[in-house]
């Protein structure tokens, strides 16, 4: 069998990637893959999972990442690059283009990474979305709010994983909200990544992402998500997912319900809008995660992400409910293989997260016995943090609040599954120290 060299570009935090690729190791070997982990954070445990490792610069230094990879493969051929993470998209698109490998084009990646470009392209294609405007001054935002009403959303052009996204419900809060957003732009790795990416492939950001940002009308409705892969111009979607958001003013995930509790015609309508958004960005040969808001059957596109959903446990939930392993399908796509699947029907499930939003250090986590005691039929619990991990409060740009998650299945309803998962995960006991803890390279990665 011919060996195929597969570069796994920034494939996620250590615990999650080891879990995923350990489970897929036999499958990869059977198909002749030689795996190379390419990341800015290499853990000693990675040597037990991957055939080789390549230490990279931080992901926001796109030009340096591209140069490092190209130099490493001057004398040997790289068969494919897996770029299914937010950290991998910018450099991955450039590398796939330069090496003529399957992957989203730099222009399509730019349409996802640059939120102004996303909005402009969706507008040109008449895809339903919030009203938006590029701004830099308080007066512009006041005029926008008077014209379109409150609340409004302020968002950096280079926003990633909801960093800097701020909801404003009162006029008197505008100036503070603007200062908060502007503070996230100063020294932002997201901004630097966008600028470095644009330089590396000669694209014009269309604005100054260090000074300008977006104001958008607030999209009411339920939070929904469509994930899948685009192969040879054809989008293949998993079931529509329902999101649960932590609160009205924070845009962090509290849970996922799969499939969304909607009628089949409504779900097909949501999928059609998602496909129109992908077409507007000319997105191909990659994974996607499109976030939407829906009031009954009326839907607006909030985000178009050029990778599959990244939250802990989401791949596992999709596999359990849809009968599809997203990681294996993404590898097949990156390798130029045709991708096909048949969705399972009649299975329901959900993830529920325990979150923490205070500046602190994790001092203690639940013991295995405590997790097992809370697990019940159809419920599994996994802890995402370790003692010593640093937690940040919003609006800190590195806020990522997940402590643990529970996964539950149900024969009738994803909402019933979510309720059981939620009841279990909120009982977990964590201890926190207000003093700062360790902040590793991995913690700070985009």
Task: Please provide a written account of the structure.
The strands form four sheets. Strands 9, 10, 11, 12, 13, 14, 15, 17 and 19 form a nine-stranded antiparallel β-sheet that branches. A four-stranded parallel β-sheet has the order 3-2-1-4. The chain is α+β, with helices and mostly antiparallel strands and 446 residues long. The chain folds into four domains: 4-103, 3-Layer(aba) Sandwich (Rossmann fold), CATH 3.40.50.20; 130-218, ATP-grasp fold, A domain (Dna Ligase, domain 1, 2-Layer Sandwich); 219-345, D-amino Acid Aminotransferase, Chain A, domain 1 (2-Layer Sandwich), CATH 3.30.470.20; 348-444, Pyrimidine nucleoside phosphorylase-like, C-terminal domain (Aldehyde Oxidoreductase, domain 3), CATH 3.90.1170. Helix content is 34%, strand content 26%. Helix 4 runs antiparallel to helix 5.
Q: What's this entry about, in short?
A:
By secondary structure, the chain is α+β, with helices and mostly antiparallel strands.
What separation lies between the terminal Cα atoms?
37 Å
Mean pLDDT: 92
CATH architecture of the largest domain: 2-Layer Sandwich
Gross morphology is globular
Instruction: Report the sheet-strand fraction.
Output: 25-35%
Number of strands: 20
Number of domains: 4
- Uncertain segments are 439-446
Just give the CATH class of the largest domain.
Answer: Alpha Beta
In the CATH scheme, what's the topology name of the largest domain?
A: D-amino Acid Aminotransferase, Chain A, domain 1
What would CATH call the homologous superfamily of the largest domain? ATP-grasp fold, B domain
Structural class: alpha+beta
